[in-house]
Model the fold of this input.
Amino acid sequence: MGILGPTIRAAVGDTIKVHFLNKTDMPLSMHPHGVMYDKDNEGADGGKGGSIPPGERYTYTWIVDQDAGPGPGDPSSIVWLYHSHVMAEEEVNLGLIGTLIITAADKAHSDKNPAPRDVDQEFIALYMIFNEENDEESGLKHAINGRIFGNLSGFETRRGQRVRWHLVALGNEVDNHTVHWHGQTVLDHGRRTDVVEIMPASMTSVDMVPRSPGNWLFHCHVNDHMIAGMATRWLVK
Ligand SMILES: [Cu+2]
Done:
């Protein structure tokens, strides 16, 4: 998972409550995509949850209605971003990012376990160039889940597993990424490919059944990004 915050899971029909405690020295928030909220639970732009001062708590309540779940052309679970949204650009670059995974009501394992029944493993990959030095090239960290040059581990699976990849991106105009797997293909909403295009705040979920064992590259196919370290390996046993 690298730099990503905890994954929040739910099924359609659930209500999510996040007990947020700001242990930093700056005001922060949690702004979710996709789920239903009122102004106080938007985590941005005013409202009670829009800016939580250092040391203070807030409970966000988010409704997982039908419109937060998979659409007719989607797989059984889909991904949404959440991130801090007081000074969003700065806070996202600090790594205050995570994801929600929402499963269709009739595809969840059980009331206690909202993970989808028709999938064996779910992986999450954030493609983002972290801007650590006011746009100086040396401070542009071309990262997958916040890690560069093969330093991300944990993408491990076996041949024949039903694997779902949740792909998200954030960042700036340079964050146009082409996510590429070596060794296998994915089903992207009915399209067969081994490259998925994502842009800042893109969120998409694609399915794979690995067919070929190996320690394979998983990387951005944009030349400049590849050279700058936006690559890691993933293992198929
Ligand atoms: Cu890229």
